[in-house]
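Q: Could you fold this chain for me?
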Amino acid sequence: MGEIDITVFTPTYNRASTLPNVFESLLGQTFKRFEWIVVDDGSSDNTDTLVKGFVDKADFNIIYLKQKNAGKHIAQNKAVDIAQGQLFLPLDSDDTITSNALETLWGAWESIPKDERTNYSGVACHCKDQKGNRIGSPWPSAPMISNDLEITFKYHVKGEKWGAIRSDIMRRFKNDNVKGHFLDESTVWFRI
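A: Sure. Below is the predicted structure, expressed as structure tokens.
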């Protein structure tokens, strides 16, 4: 379906009721050079049938993988292994994004001079709640060059943020294959 710059990754477990909202928000994107990898973490609902139906309607590539229930961290590792995009963007199975979200993130990435991009792990933005209000505190300045540790511990920025990380970095800093169904995402972000 053409060039892929961003891999959007959605882990899911019995979320057939919310996945259509994720799909619709991706279908409405102004930026089209992306793929959507859905890793089903052992759902017992009709997630597989639902995602197969999305494939027929999508104007972007959809890859569906099913695994035994092992947790989001293992699902993410599987997606990272096959991601074709330069940037890797987790998008939870109960989230939606604005129609220009991917275009905005890619534009921020493209604004970094090519010869300097190896100094950056990715780009991030604020999240909004259902009413359109920013979640958490703002960054001290915008745009801002920083990292998760500095943002959290030096600037004390609170609240959920969202962003895309270079896929090559995600492959280098994969989640540990630990038992259990949850491994805090900050484990990887702080290592990066």
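A (continued): The CA atoms of residues 6 and 106 lie 8 Å apart.
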